[in-house]
Amino acid sequence: MSTHDNRVAIVTGAARGIGQELAVQLAERGAKLALLDMGDCSETLAAVTAAGSEAIAVQCDVSSEADWISAREAVLGRFGRADILVNNAGIFPFANIDDLTPEVFRRVLNVNLEGAYLGVRTFAPVMAENGWGRIVNFASNSIATNLAGLSHYMASKMGVIGLTRGLANDLADRGITVNAIAPAITRTPGTSVMPSEITDAVWGQQAIKRFADPADIVGPVLFLTSDDAGFMTGQTISVDGGMMKL
Ligand SMILES: NC(=O)c1ccc[n+]([C@@H]2O[C@H](COP(=O)([O-])OP(=O)(O)OC[C@H]3O[C@@H](n4cnc5c(N)ncnc54)[C@H](O)[C@@H]3O)[C@@H](O)[C@H]2O)c1
């Protein structure tokens, strides 16, 4: 399918996990990719190229405004435009309030929430030049769980939902939609360190009772970044096997 032909998509956290799967599936649908990560994106770069697309890998700490400005220069230098931004990069260190230092609290907010803001601040004006843009932010269905040790993470992801609602209002007149997804607990390198009692207890709350794979999460992001979703904005979509229900 070529739903994303010639779109230029920026995916953060593209080195592994959900971001890597998303980059490959966007490439398979015709998008050109900018792979942003603090880590090594060479594996994703090879997979995107094997899928027949073009990509660049850019070292970027999403909490750094200077890194975002460098990333914009790299994207415009290679592709001359930007159409899609997926703010997927995120961190989820567990820390009960007894152990939650101000440094960990601020880092989680800086990466998960401020990182998304900086990405939009950097790339929305570029999308606006063509009067078309798609932004997808990553929330989490953990906000609805009773997991201990995630207050900072839940705060950051609730912030992402608020950011998404507000940005939808700000950017609608430029042809840019802004939505979020709230994934289920998903089998990635990031969750591989979690004990199975925790992961199994979370997915046990779902209607579809299994540990999600990155491919389960990516489909709705493809939809939200396509022409088909042009009249949807400001929404947070649960992609969680039916754990959260309206
Ligand atoms: N895996 C889950 O169970 C789950 C559930 C709900 C939401 N999410 C969200 O989905 C997103 C991806 O999760 P994942 O499980 O694939 O994570 P992961 O840990 O497997 O991969 C995250 C990637 O982001 C990169 N990254 C981390 N901090 C960064 C920074 N400051 N700047 C740039 N890159 C950075 C890492 O290098 C890594 O490549 C995150 O936002 C996470 O909060 C994940």
Automatic annotation (TrEMBL):
It comes from the Bacteria. Keywords: Oxidoreductase. Signal peptide: none annotated. Pfam families: adh_short_C2. Belongs to the short-chain dehydrogenases/reductases (SDR) family. This is SDR family oxidoreductase. It comes from Paracoccus fistulariae.
